């Protein structure tokens, strides 16, 4: 039989689940984006020290956001249980605790970069609901503890009312989640968009660019498999028709571009591999796509940066910023304002309606999604989101290579097989890849045809596998003669280095 303490804690949890669910539903119905959990999660993401985020991405990869939400729910559950106990022992302090929790959410909400006037409301409603439910639920548990005659009756009533409160909360939260995903899916506008034909098309991807080896990453990554990394707990919704890009700061001509104006410009196709600075050696936070976009260089030429400017701080609707060297955006590379990804409008998670893509730089200093602003400035005058959190202000991609086949830890049948992978150093190009088996000599692998210097390239090497355990290593050579360093460096502050090694056992 559960003791009175356990029941009081359960009353706290039931009240808070009800409040949180109602708060989420109010947000889902009336104030999209202001979900109390998302507001608190977003603030935690922005406030977390660099090491914590590094650890989160390292531990959970692209599931880092789910892990955060589960973490918040657990903490919320603990606080709720404590509030139930407090209310039972020292009323009204349990209610005060619950209201304080809601007040924190209501105070944080307006500080979010994309906050609207009523963003505080869902947290306030959540807190009031939880506080109102807490007192009667705790009462029922008290009646239970000193019920003389019929103890079973109040217990049953508590279970019924407490259970109903919690169930209502869960239902409301599910409703909110359905509204949210409906809102994303119902970007009917996005579905209806027909992207203009490129004024400058890319030569078709050579058939010899993809070796077609089982288990090897395809040379062009399908959108559904493309890694996603960003600080947005809820994917920002930006409508193309109201989207604008403002170019301002150290420019002679400030300018604003609309969606229709952007689509009317001569767009170009370009294949560019995007990689995250958090990608570990051998990691999968990398993908390659064919982008449809307009050269940022041309827009900057119109705006005319002043002679002192050396950086462009791009800003997203959700407040994320990236610092990109001005020279990289004005030289002849395909640094684009992209609207299309592999033949369709940008998926919402990848920046719909417009994002930046810049060959040769890690995403955190170049690939701003949901971009709305380019501020021409100086590295010594402004810093970007990740720089403020300890990462380097500049992030050129480092020369790397990865073994995809055979998979690390896999069992290989003795005899003729193949070792294959990918190698990259965007905007420089890869000249060769070498493979080492155990402590043997480095052997040159065959490169597939590169799509361009801005994309990764596949490589392969036939291998007569002999039985036993083996370590396979690879290293790449760049088109400039650089050899991929063996020096092991972690992702922070400007990208991991080292050789990818995989262990396999051959039988
Ligand atoms: N608005 C916004 N843009 C962003 C980010 C972000 O957090 N917010 N993350 C950047 C980082 S760190 C990377 S690696 C790339 C990832 O792009 P993808 O999710 O389309 O793969 O987006 C960049 N653009
Ligand atoms: Mo990244």
Question: What does this protein look like?
Answer:
With about 500 residues, the protein is α+β, with helices and mostly antiparallel strands. It has 3 domains: about 5-185, no CATH class; about 205-390, Sulfite Oxidase, Chain A, domain 2 (Alpha-Beta Complex), CATH 3.90.420.10; about 400-505, Immunoglobulin-like, CATH 2.60.40.650. It is about 35% helix and about 20% strand. It is globular, with a radius of gyration of 27 Å. The protein starts with a helix and ends with a strand. Bound molecules: ligand MTE and molybdenum atom.
Which small-molecule ligands are present, each listed once?
ligand MTE, molybdenum atom
Q: Which range best describes the helical content: under 10%, 10-25%, 25-40%, 40-55%, 55-70% or over 70%?
A: 25-40%
Total number of beta strands = 19
Structural class: alpha+beta
Low-confidence stretches: none
Q: Main sheet: which strands, in order across?
A: 2-1-10-5-6
Query: Quick one: biggest sheet?
Result: 5 strands, mixed
**SSE succession:** HHHHHHHHEEHEEHEEHEEEEEEEEEEEEE
């Amino acid at each position: 039989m559960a003791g009175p303490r356990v029941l009081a804690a359960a009353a706290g949890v039931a009240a808070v689940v009800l409040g949180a669910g109602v708060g989420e539903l109010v947000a889902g119905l009336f104030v999209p984006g202001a979900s109390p959990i998302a507001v608190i999660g977003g603030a935690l993401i922005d406030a977390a020290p660099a090491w914590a985020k590094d650890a989160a991405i390292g531990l959970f990869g692209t599931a880092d956001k789910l892990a955060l939400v589960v973490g918040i729910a657990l903490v919320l559950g603990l606080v709720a249980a404590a509030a139930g106990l407090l209310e039972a022992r020292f009323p009204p302090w349990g209610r005060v605790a619950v209201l304080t929790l809601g007040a924190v959410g209501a105070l944080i909400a307006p500080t979010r970069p994309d906050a609207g006037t009523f963003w505080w409301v869902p947290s306030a409603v959540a807190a009031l609901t939880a506080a109102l439910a807490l007192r009667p639920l705790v009462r029922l548990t008290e009646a239970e503890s000193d019920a003389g005659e019929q103890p079973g009756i109040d217990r049953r009533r508590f279970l019924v009312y407490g259970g109903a409160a919690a169930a209502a909360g869960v239902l409301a939260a599910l409703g909110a989640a359905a509204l949210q995903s409906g809102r994303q899916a119902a970007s009917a506008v996005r579905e209806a968009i027909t992207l203009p034909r490129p004024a400058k098309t890319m030569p078709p991807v050579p058939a010899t660019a993809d070796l077609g080896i089982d288990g090897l990453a395809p040379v062009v990554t399908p959108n559904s498999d493309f890694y996603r990394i960003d600080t947005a707990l809820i994917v920002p919704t930006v409508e193309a028709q109201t989207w604008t890009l403002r170019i301002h700061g150290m420019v002679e001509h400030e300018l604003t571009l609309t969606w229709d104006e952007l689509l009317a410009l001569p767009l170009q196709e370009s294949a560019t591999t995007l990689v995250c600075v958090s990608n570990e050696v051998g990691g999968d936070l990398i993908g390659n796509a064919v982008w449809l976009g307009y050269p940022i260089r041309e827009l900057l030429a119109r705006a005319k940066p002043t002679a002192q400017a050396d950086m462009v701080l791009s800003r997203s609707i959700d407040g994320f910023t990236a610092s990109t060297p001005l020279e990289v955006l004005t030289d002849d590379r395909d640094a684009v304002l992209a609207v299309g990804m592999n033949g369709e409008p940008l998926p919402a998670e990848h920046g719909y309606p417009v994002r930046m893509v810049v060959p040769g730089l890690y995403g955190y200093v170049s690939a701003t999604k949901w971009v709305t602003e380019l501020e021409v400035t100086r590295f010594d005058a402004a810093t970007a989101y990740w720089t403020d959190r300890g990462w380097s202000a500049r992030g050129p991609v480092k020369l790397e290579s990865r073994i995809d086949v055979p998979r690390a830890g896999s069992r290989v049948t003795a005899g003729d097989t193949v070792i294959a992978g990918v190698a990259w150093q965007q905007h420089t190009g890869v000249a060769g890849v070498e493979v080492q088996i155990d402590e043997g000599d480095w052997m040159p692998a065959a490169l597939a045809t590169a799509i361009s210097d801005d994309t990764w390239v596949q490589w392969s090497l036939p291998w007569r596998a002999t039985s036993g355990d083996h370590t396979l290593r690879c290293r790449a050579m760049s088109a400039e003669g650089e050899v991929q360093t063996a020096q092991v460096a972690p992702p922070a502050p400007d990208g991991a280095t080292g050789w990818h090694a995989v262990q396999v056992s051959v039988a």
